[in-house]
Amino acid sequence: MSGHTAQPPPARPAARGSGGRAGTARKKGAGGAATTAVAAVLFAVPVVTALFGPLLAPLAEASGPGAPYALDGRHPLGTDGLGRDVLALLLRGGGSTLGSALGAVALAYLVGGAVGLAAAVSRHRWVDELLMRPVEVVLPIPSLLVISLVGVGRHGNAWAVTMAVALVNTPVAARLVRAAALRAAAGPVAEAMRMQGESRLRVQLGYVGGSVLPVVAADVGTRVTGAVFTVAAANFLGLGMEPTAPDWGVTIAASREALLVQPWSVCAPTAMLLMFTVGLNLLGDRLLDRRDRRPPGDRRDRRARVPVARKEGRT
Amino acid sequence: MARHALRRVLLALAQLVLLAVLVFLLTSLLPGDAADVLFNDKAGTEQIARLRHEMGLDQPPAQRFLDWAKDLVTGDAGTSLTGGQSVSGIVAHSVGATALLAGVTAAIAVPVALVLGLVTGCRAGGRLDRTVTAVTLALSSVPDFVLSLALVAVFALKLGWLPSTWIGATTGDLLTRPGLLVLPVVVLLARTVSQLIRQFRAGTLGALNSGYARHARRLGVPRTRLLLRHVLPNAAVPGVQQLARTGDALLGGVLVVEAVFAVPGAATALIDAVRSRDVPTVQALTLLLAAAALFLNVAADLVSHRLSPRVEVLR
Q1: Among A105, A134, A256, B298, which is 20 to 30 Å from A243 by CA?
Q2: Which residues of chain B lie closer than 8 angstroms to A273, CB-CB?
């Protein structure tokens, strides 16, 4: 027994010394894969719920309305203050929150990206100034203020919330894209392409436009999370949709006084929001990690090779 | 420095004017103006037309904007459509609580984030760094209103340690009942501090790895002196700039926190005004809150310029 326990210690330093690095690297890889899987599941559940929930909601509503804040067998997650089935609300409520947020970010990148790219590749300084000055004016306006301004005239409208969130995110997107495009346009690759006599369109749209994409991809995760927060907060505060609309934020706000009586009515939509944002944040971090873990110099090499490799592939 | 400050302040004034135009455009040019709201669609068209004339709503938009702006400059923001009180009175009455919340939050957030950011940046990868990073990442995935509800459920409803609402309390009561402040400020701190720590930490890392820090180390500059004299001012720059952008998170947080805890502040007044479509109050309050965000922006820009003059303001 004592002989057995005496043996391992000398083996341990050896293992740490030789295979230690590989071991931890492997462990990190396995842990990374597990985290990625968990993140993907966290992210997928609310997205699938939002996409296919409305199709399944009639099944949950089949048992009919119940008593307010009831927790009986007929309703798996109980009912809300109006006696509606919480599961059905959950299934129907994802589209407005996630749809508004994603739509707003997409719109912000479409408009802001075009403005930023145009400002960066323009040969005239005044175009840049004209496009970017207004952006700087709008930049410091807090998002919920814009929503309240828009909300005062168009109450209970998911479109108004989407437009307001897009309006807030557009300047940020424009600045980000402009900065990334300027960096690429001033870089050696763009210069080499210009010297090779590539057309202006190809350099600016093909190369500069393309090199902006990784920057945008890295930013989209945080931007969507922020948009989901803003949309949910707007609906929670009653600035967005009607107080009876089936929306996660609205449901949380409407049932919050019954938190201890009927916890599901608050916790279920909250869990959906949390799963989405945590999953998205983790996935985004994974992506950035993978990009950063590449050996130094690799990124520049790959970028430098792009136009040339394309040419070789064609001939 | 003085010239720079002057330019920055002039830009801010221009932004404020544009902001006023934007606020007016978004609220006043909507279908369904104040006269419709006052009469709630019940009065005859003749009556509405007369009221519209009395309120000056039949004037062209540009004239109305000038009238509104002129009154605003003289401190008269109009009359509330719902209560009939003067809007300036509503603003003056509600602003104290909001300023107090934001001020206390900022006073705690900045030193805490600066110290934690510096410490974690110096020992990147250490246990404290990993803990802080994990906590800030987790906190930034939780929407403000979810955090508020969770804290209320635990500390106010379950444990009964802290009051869950300000109903019945006024700003003056805070001196006798400081417990009122704890939960709202904790919620506001969660988001702001985690954003700031991340920036201060990144700034510290960048400054420590820079050429001048390496050179100073080679010259034998003591570590404390290196950290305080050379690293800290440069490390603080991204954090201070983040502080400007924190205005968004802080104001959004204030809206949510005031709504959840029923704080009698500007944000509660704003949400009430949006719900009742009280346009003059919404205009005054959004302009005030946006101006506060703008002021924060200017202050942060000036401080970061003082810390590291090479940072350009406009780009």
Answers
A1: A105
A2: 143, 146
Measured in residues, chain B has a length of 315
Contact B155, A282 (CB under 8 A): no
What class has domain A37-292?
mainly alpha
Residues B51 and B158 in one domain: no
Question: Nearest residue on chain A to B243, judged by CA atoms?
Answer: A140
Q: Is residue B81 part of a domain?
A: no
Q: Domain count of chain B?
A: 2
Quick: pLDDT tens for B199-248. Answer: 788 777 777 777 777 787 788 777 777 777 777 777 777 777 777 666 66
Nearest to B282 by CA among B295, B273, B291: B273
Q: Are residues B153 and B259 in the same domain?
A: yes
| Alpha-helix runs per DSSP H in B158-313 | 179-208, 211-218, 223-225, 232-261, 266-275, 279-307
Q: Is residue A115 within 8 Å of A100, Cβ to Cβ?
A: no
pLDDT in tens, B79-121: 666 666 777 777 777 777 778 888 888 888 888 888 888 888 7
Spatial distance between the Cα atoms of A102 and A230, rounded to a whole number of angstroms: 12
Collapsing DSSP to helix, strand or coil, B178 comes out as: coil
Over residues A101-130, the pLDDT tens digits come to 889 899 988 988 888 888 877 777 777 777
ipTM exceeds 0.90, yes or no: no
Last residue of a domain, one of B222, B244, B264: B264
Q: What residues of chain B lie within 8 A of the CB of A46, using their CB?
A: none
Q: Are residues B171 and B235 in the same domain?
A: yes
- Does B169 lie in the same domain as B251? yes
- Find which of B11, B15, B26, B80 to mutate to test the A interface (most A CBs within 10 Å of its CB): B26
B112 plus B58 within the same structural domain: no
For the stretch A8-48, pLDDT in tens is 333 333 333 333 344 444 444 556 677 788 888 888 888 88
* Domain span holding position B173: 99-264
Do both B26 and B150 map to the same domain? no
Mutate to test the interface with B, among A35, A229, A241 (most CBs of B within 10 A): A229
User: Residue B125, class by beta-carbon neighbours within 10 Å (0-12 exposed, 13-18 middle, 19+ buried)?
Assistant: exposed
